[in-house]
Design a protein that fits this description.
Strand 2 and strand 3 form a beta hairpin. Helix content is 36%, strand content 26%. The chain is of the alpha+beta class.
Length: 127
């Protein structure tokens, strides 16, 4: 039997008009400290976003969500946050903020296959 890993995940949300508190799930961040694992999966549906507000800069939203993935993966050119350890990057990515791109509270789980779990959660909660 494979070892089960404790993980946490958060949903990445776009909040087009912060005052209205409506959001669209666009991705997930899955993290396991013990497995030293972090993944971001995302898909920005332009038509759905524009249905919230025709004034949105969808290209900028895509760039911002892409930067979350780069920070999670520790990309060299993404500044000091990307240079932190995996757990610190996850905590920074899931910190409460009131911007147009937010994350849910982290939720825990147990799994044997981190990649498969990340893909499953992405399909269930975003697609």
């Amino acid at each position: 039997m494979k070892e089960k890993h404790l993980y946490e995940y958060a949903i990445i949300r776009v909040v087009p008009i912060v005052e209205r508190e409506e959001f669209l799930n666009v991705g997930i961040i899955l993290f396991s400290k013990k497995a030293k694992f972090i993944r971001v999966h995302y898909a920005v549906d332009e038509a759905k976003l524009l249905s919230f507000s025709a004034d949105l800069d969808v290209e900028q939203i895509k760039l911002n969500v892409q930067s979350l993935e780069k920070i999670a993966m520790g990309a060299e050119h993404c500044g000091p946050i990307a240079a932190l350890d995996v757990a610190s990057r996850f905590r920074w990515l899931t910190a409460v903020r009131s911007s147009a791109i937010q994350t849910s509270r982290p939720h825990p789980g147990l799994c044997e296959d981190m990649e498969a779990t990340a893909k499953r959660l992405f399909e269930e909660l975003v697609l």
